[in-house]
């Protein structure tokens, strides 16, 4: 294949990427071919790999062609942040696959080799999203353990604690729901001969060490969730204790009033 340019662009469309029947129909209209969870679309001078979890990888596709494809997929009106993009260069004809300084050297013009690399690029971009979500969540609530250590309690109402627990649970469950995306793709069960290509790209992008760090961040979120659950239970128990004390006090007052009334009578 003769490429129009040497650019590789990875874009994470996130929640705006719809994998419903209408979206699948639009992809089918592009003369696409499916390889497990990725769809290949040939374009003039290049090609596109569309992944079911919302990442698109453009190989040698110029800006006009890219915009035209996004328009046909009805995705052109959604702004794409810089954090949701990664860009590389590539050449074909090296002695072996190499990646350094964001330049990919391909040994041959093999479609599935490019798919193997695209899998790693897509995972890396999706991992960026999860890393940001986890880190942002931890930073937002990092003050809670310090407050508990200093004062022995968290100065929040049960309702506020419940909201925070809901946010923590939502972040954690969203990441875990898609966690399998960060494992070796199922594509390589059918094409094991391309897994070595994927591993080269995955090592360069440090996918596995980053997944381990993400796991630790999820553990931290889990600990925050547990700590807030304990605090909420403590507040609830304290609330019940006060109710019991008040009821006992009311009963004592009423009993005393009855005794005084009996004495006067």
Textual characterization of the structure:
The protein is of the alpha+beta class and 265 residues long. Helices cover 56% and strands 15% of the residues. It has two domains: 7-109, TATA-Binding Protein (2-Layer Sandwich); 126-264. It has helices at residues 21-28, 63-72, 111-140, 143-151, 158-177, 187-190, 195-204, 207-264; strands at residues 7-12, 33-35, 38-43, 46-51, 55-59, 85-92, 98-100, 103-106. A hairpin with a 2-residue loop joins β3 and β4. α3 (111-140) runs parallel beside α7. It is elongated. The N and C termini lie far apart (109 Å).
Looking at this protein, list some descriptive labels.
265 residues; 8-stranded mixed β-sheet; alpha+beta; TATA-Binding Protein; 2 domains
Explain the layout of strands and helices.
Layout lengths: L6 E6 L8 H8 L4 E3 L2 E6 L2 E6 L3 E5 L3 H10 L12 E8 L5 E3 L2 E4 L4 H30 L2 H9 L6 H20 L9 H4 L4 H10 L2 H58 L1
Parallel strand pairs: 6-8
Antiparallel strand pairs: 1-5, 1-6, 2-3, 3-4, 4-5, 7-8
């Amino acid at each position: 294949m003769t490429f129009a340019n040497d650019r590789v662009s990875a874009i994470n469309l996130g929640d705006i990427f719809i994998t419903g029947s209408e979206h699948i129909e639009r992809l089918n209209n592009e003369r696409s071919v499916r390889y497990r969870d990725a769809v290949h679309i040939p374009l003039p001078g290049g090609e596109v790999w569309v992944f079911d979890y919302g990442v698109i990888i453009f190989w040698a596709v110029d800006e006009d062609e890219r915009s035209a494809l996004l328009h046909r997929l009805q995705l052109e009106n959604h702004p794409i942040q810089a954090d949701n993009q990664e860009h590389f260069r590539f050449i074909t004809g090296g002695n072996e696959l190499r990646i350094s300084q964001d330049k990919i050297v391909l040994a041959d013009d093999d479609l599935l080799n490019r798919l193997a690399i695209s899998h790693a690029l897509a995972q890396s971009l999706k991992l960026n999203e999860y890393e940001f979500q986890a880190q942002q969540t931890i930073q937002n609530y990092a003050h809670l353990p310090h407050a508990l250590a200093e004062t022995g309690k968290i100065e929040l109402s049960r309702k506020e604690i419940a909201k925070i627990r809901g946010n923590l649970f939502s972040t954690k469950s969203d990441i875990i729901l898609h966690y399998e995306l960060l494992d070796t793709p199922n594509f390589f069960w059918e094409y094991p001969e391309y897994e070595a290509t994927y591993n080269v790209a995955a090592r360069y992008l440090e996918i596995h060490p980053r997944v381990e760090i993400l796991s630790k961040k999820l553990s931290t979120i889990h600990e925050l969730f547990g700590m807030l659950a304990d605090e909420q239970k403590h507040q609830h128990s304290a609330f019940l204790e006060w109710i019991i004390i008040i009821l006992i006090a009311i009963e004592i007052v009423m009993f005393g009033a009855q005794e005084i009334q009996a004495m006067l009578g």
